[in-house]
Every structure is written in C-alpha cells, then in structure tokens.
Amino acid sequence: MFDKVLVANRGEIAVRVFRTLSRMGIKTVAVYSDVDAGALHVRVADEAVNIGPAPANQSYLRGEVIIEAAKAAGAGAIHPGYGFLSESADFARAVEKAGLVFIGPSADAIDKMGSKIAARQVMSDAGVPIVPGTTEEVRTLERAREVAVEIGYPVAVKAAGGGGGKGFRVALRPEDLAQAFDGAKGEGERFFGNSTVYLERYLENPRHIEIQVLADLHGNVVHLFERDCSVQRRHQKLVEESPAPAVGPEMRQRIGDIAVQAAKAVGYSSAGTVEGLLAGDEYFFLEMNTRIQVEHGVTEMVTGTDLIEEQVRIAAGEPLRLSQDGVKLTGHAIECRINAEDASRGFLPNPGSLTTYDEPTGHHIRVDSGVTEGSVVERYYDPMIAKVIVWGEDRAEATERMLAALDDFAIEGVKTLLPFHRALLETAQWRDGETCSDLVADREWLETLQSTQQSGDAPHVQHSIH
What we know:
- It is a single chain.
- This protein starts with a strand and ends in a 19-residue tail after the last helix.
- It is α+β, with helices and mostly antiparallel strands.
- The radius of gyration is 21 Å and the shape is globular.
- Helix 4 runs antiparallel to helix 5, helix 5 crosses helix 6 (116-125) and helix 12 (395-407) runs antiparallel to helix 13.
- The model is unreliable at 458-464 (pLDDT under 50).
- The protein is 32% helix and 27% strand.
C-alpha cells in the first residue's frame, strides 16, 4: 500500500479523496493554484505544493509540474480526481514513466475508452449497440455536413476527449451545424487540449443511464448497478439517483452485463462508468468515463462501497474485495449538485465569496464540498459548491429527505441552485420519475425561481422524515 498520495485536483473531489486516504492511514499532498492558496483542500491535506497561476492551463493542467511536485513530496502515487488530467492518457503514461503509480486505468485503456471515438469503435466491434454516428474523427465542416445528412438531424457534435457537458453541441437544423461544430472543437481544445470531434444522432429526451464498474489488475470486473442522470442543463448533470426509476430487474441485468463486457473488452482496471441512453426498451452505449464520477456518492450510498478506497487498493495491486453476487442494491439515493448559478437567468454562473455557508446534517444526509464560510467560488473553475446526497428506504422517502436537507442548507453571498432543486423535487414530473427535461428548458418556469433567489438562499418549507 502507498505511504503518500498526491491528488492532482482541487475543490470537493480533492477533499473527498483526502478523506478516504486519511482513513486508510495514507499521507496526503495537495496541489494548488495561486488563487487556491487558502482553499479547503489545501488546508485538509498533510502538505501542499503551489503549481502556478489561476488559469487551469497554467496550473492544474500542467502534468509535468504536478509530477515534479509528487516526486519532491515523496508521494508514491497520484490520484487525478475528475476533470483536468483525469482522462489524459499522456498524463497517465508520464506518471508511470516517472516511477509513480497512476490511481486509475492504464494509459492504453484511457486511449481506447477515454477517447469517445475509439470507445464507439471498440463497442461496435464488440457488438454493443451504439448511437448512430461516426466512429472516426470528423475533420472539416464540409465532412460534418455530409455525415449529418447521412445520419439525419438533429445531430450532436462531440469532442473526443470531452466530458461533463463540455465539448458537446447540438445542431437541430443544417443552419445550426457550423456553430455547433466550431463550438465543440473550441471547447474540446480549451478544456481538454484536444479539438478532435465526431458526430452522432441526437436522441431527444432519452433517459441518461450509466453503470458503475470496478475492475482490478487480475481480470476481475463487477458492476455496482445504475445511476439515472437524466436531469441536465446544457448536457451537464444536475440531479442523479440510484436505482433508476425506469429500470427494472431485467433491464438492470442487461445493462450491467453490457458494462462488464465493455470493461473487459479493453482490459480495464480501476473505477469507471459506462454511460448510455435508454430510449424505450433500447439501450445505446454512449461513452465510458475512465475516472471517478462526480456522482459516485450516489452509488456509495446504495451499495455501501467506498469507491475511492477501491480505486486505491486496485492501483496498489490488490484483487477486488467484491464479487458480483456480493454487491447489493439497498434503498434509494439522490444527489443534487449545488452550483453557484442563477437558474432563473439560464443557469448563469455567479462566482463570488460565500458570506454564509452552513451545511445540512442528519441521518442519511451527506454533503461533499470543498468550501467553508468565507471561501470564494472562483471564476476560473467549475462553479460547483457542494453535492448533497441522501438515502431513503425508497424514492419517495429519499425525495423528502433531500427536500429537508435543501431547506437546511444556508448559503449567502452568491446565487445557487438551491431554489431550483427545491422547486424541481416538488413537481409532479419528478414524483412521476420523468426526465424533467421540459422543465429545465422552460424559461418561464425557471424565471419564477427569481423571486425565491436571495443571495443563493430561499424561504424554507418544513419537511418531515421519520
């Protein structure tokens, strides 16, 4: 086992990883940009190293600087978290070349599955259904126009190395394609250093269902059931839950088998997520995220498994401690992402200082965050403040517990998604297990949230959980 691990990330995921590492008796090293010098993740680590100015491409995306920091600190391994360099095969190779361990899949697996184009080809070759589209790079707008005619509008233009909704643009009509093509390429380059894009048919209002997998270095692979991530804005997730409301036992078995098959096809190891779209009774492979997911806590709540610990143990060469029969799905979990955004203004980011910050507590309520009162939500990075995750015996109880937790969450100084989540979970659409895509896109409905938005907090409504 490792004596010391550096986490090549910031914010809530760095704090989350440090929590498990400390519990395991492993010393922790943080990295930080100039504006993050006083950040929570820096304070909770055993030691911290400055890696450059605020812009990510001058700090958190500088792999060579991060590796040098790890070596100087005497760390034996690097955990990449999510985002930034977490799905960079080049970074994984550089870590290994430096004599360190990358806590994640092999660089070859990242190449095959981290690249959305390569992953589609691998899955197609393995007989797994994929969304109609290309399995090679679309280099020019002219070629994109040809492909769009072949597969039919609407089409999605997607960055090969994208994720988290970045590098994803939709063209509903031919006249939208140029903007979508340039936008996806630009975001791919800006956020992931890779402007490669491909096209696929855009399925309107499917359910976004993903499967969590764990695989070790000895050929063992298990899935930990599904998460429904259908509530999204601009193709970025807002609410996640497990189990998925529309997935029954037979479908759960089928898509779980697909995920295990996908992982085995590329010799995958570590935690990973196979994402797909469920349209009626058809499930299409979408992509594989070769990293820990933002929403991993949902799976942890319904399975009782610490996915970060399993990642660390797998990277250290230990065999999986879980068998497929030993993974049990218990109860229902929901996660709400609390971003510094104003939903009433089209989810406009609202960076600034948190003048009040008081997290909810209680039975089966978990908050993963990287801030405290006085922290600054910086404009340079993702505006997520925290994730609220709750568990209940069933979906109805989990919903009531989430509403109670949201009511008890006090944030002032920036506008947040607290009013949005409270309003959404009170709707008939949510209660009926719908995707809620019509609400998220309804400007008039979103504008009604403006009256409840007061520096990020809203009037409380009492909810009782027994």
